[in-house]
Amino acid sequence: RRKMAVPGAGEHPLQFNYSFWYSRRTPGRPASTQSYEQNIKQIGTFASVEQFWRFYSHMIRPGDLTGHSDFHLFKDGIKPMWEDDANKMGGKWIIRLRKGLASRCWENLILAILGEQFMVGEEICGAVVSVRFQEDIISIWNKTASDQATTARIRDTLRRVLNLPPNTIMEYKTHTDSIK
Amino acid sequence: GTRIIYDRKFLLDCRNSPLAR
To answer: What pLDDT does residue A179 have?
Structure first.
């Protein structure tokens, strides 16, 4: 069993513990659930601001990744998969980014999550940055897709913390729609 | 209970702490 992460002496605790994950699609293969789970690797878990920086400072910036890759930041105990109990009734806000914006947007997004800027109780599950050929995609996942007050608040906070142009298109998708 | 809230600037400042290395 994995040891639980705890803040060290003098460190600033986070409201929740989180894990970073990394996944990379093997070119040409269909993404079945099994291969998705096999392709996703947990990088590490952290409980404090300082522990977060120790991981993050050594990670490649999303804008420097090549190929079909994703970084995931999820609360400890939640797998970055639709099938996880915390996610199965949930959904995600999706923002498509032109190339060159992913690194800055991803950093602003995860700092807002870790700092509890969304003010939606326990609703946030995690976030993903997906590096693709022509554009990059960031998404933030929450527990209850049917809770419109929560999803609206997440959308408004996203606009503020990402400092997005007013015409940026944001799309909400429930995970059950994504499975279909 | 209380929530532990940090703004972006505070989190970025923590990056320079020796504990963050």
So the answer is: 74
Burial of A3 (0-12, 13-18, 19+ CB in 10 A): exposed
Tokens representing residue A164 in the block: 């997005």
Helix (H, G, I), strand (E, B), or coil: what is residue A16? strand
Radius of gyration of chain A (CA): 16
In the 8-state DSSP scheme, what is residue A99? T
Consecutive 10-residue runs of chain A (180 residues): their mean pLDDT?
85 98 79 75 97 97 93 97 96 96 97 98 97 95 98 96 87 89
Please tell me the predicted confidence (pLDDT) of residue A177: 86
What are the structure tokens assigned to A82, written together?
């639709």
DSSP A112-171: HHHTT-S--TT-EEEEEEEE-SSEEEEEEEES-TT-HHHHHHHHHHHHHHHT--TT--EE
Contact B8 A115 (CB under 8 A): yes
**Alpha helices (runs of H) in B1-21, residue ranges in sequence order:** 8-14
pLDDT value for A25? 82
Contacts of B21 in chain A (CB under 8 A): 53-54, 57
Q: Which ipTM value was assigned to this complex?
A: 0.97
pLDDT for res A175: 95
CA A30 to chain centre: 23
B13 min Cα distance to partner chain A (Å): 10
Report the C-alpha gap between A79 and A73 in whole angstroms. 10
